[in-house]
Amino acid sequence: MCTIIVLNQVHPTYPVIIAANRDEYYARPSSGPVRLLEDPVAIGGVDGRKKGTWMGATAHGLFVGLTNQRTYALPHNDRLSRGQVVLDCLAAGSVEGVDALLRDLKPKDYNAFNLLYADRTQVRAAYAWDGERVEFEDVPAGIHVLPNDRLDHADWFKVGRARALLRGWETRPWEELAPHLVRVLADREKAPLASVQRPPLASPFTRTMVHQLTCLCIRTPVYGTRSSTLVALDGDGGVAQYHFAPEAPDRAPFQDVTALLR
């Protein structure tokens, strides 16, 4: 589970801004951003089990981030690594390269996922579920949220919550916007319990557990928001800002790791 917020073509300095939370079991090991690739130069965190990444960026200004598609069943352990898909997309080096890679990908080889990828001029979402092909969607200008489902899905409380909290802030200078993005990522407001549907009877998840997942910053005894990332793409085709918090955004300060791309 993850949440990716994108400000597309609304900020006066940075054409694309990303704010994202990574949600995962606390027991699953991972690292913060490191050099993932040298050609093209790319950075991102590393999953300690499968050695892939959940999101990253290249020095030439390509961002790629993944969210799991929520299902009410446990994942299939015999399927290919979704984190490797993100690595392969970063290696593709461009939005067009990611398009081509995803057109050849077979969704049934993976547990279902959603992908957001962008450069300074274009942002796209892709959905790799159980169909025969990946489905693509252009992301228009504005404030958008990719949860564990389709972009801006109206049934997801955190989508409306994030967009409401950001309204009026999207054109503020980076020095004001960045701390507010951190506050949004740290928000722990949950949906009203009455609005949370009961999972199917065969699901291992309870309604109480699902309720805990409705906030932007998740905290449960075994699962929650493990890290957060802020990325700003500049108008020259590079990455102006890449900041990473190694814990939940209300528990650890963000570190500027942009220099890893230089």
Would you write up a description of this structure?
The protein is of the alpha+beta class and 262 residues long. It has a single domain, classed as 4-Layer Sandwich (Penicillin V Acylase, Chain A). It has helices at residues 82-92, 95-103, 157-166, 174-185, 207-212; strands at residues 2-8, 16-25, 30-38, 41-47, 55-58, 63-68, 113-118, 123-128, 135-138, 142-146, 223-233, 239-245, 255-256. The strands form 2 sheets. A 7-stranded antiparallel beta sheet has the order 3-4-5-6-7-8-9, covered by helices on one side. A 6-stranded antiparallel beta sheet has the order 10-1-2-11-12-13, covered by helices on one side. The chain is globular. The two termini are 30 Å apart. The mean pLDDT is 96.
Question: Secondary structure elements and their pairing?
Answer:
Blueprint: E1 2-8, E2 16-25, E3 30-38, E4 41-47, E5 55-58, E6 63-68, H1 82-92, H2 95-103, E7 113-118, E8 123-128, E9 135-138, E10 142-146, H3 157-166, H4 174-185, H5 207-212, E11 223-233, E12 239-245, E13 255-256
Antiparallel strand pairs: 1-2, 1-10, 2-11, 3-4, 4-5, 5-6, 6-7, 7-8, 8-9, 11-12, 12-13
Helix pairs in contact: 1-2
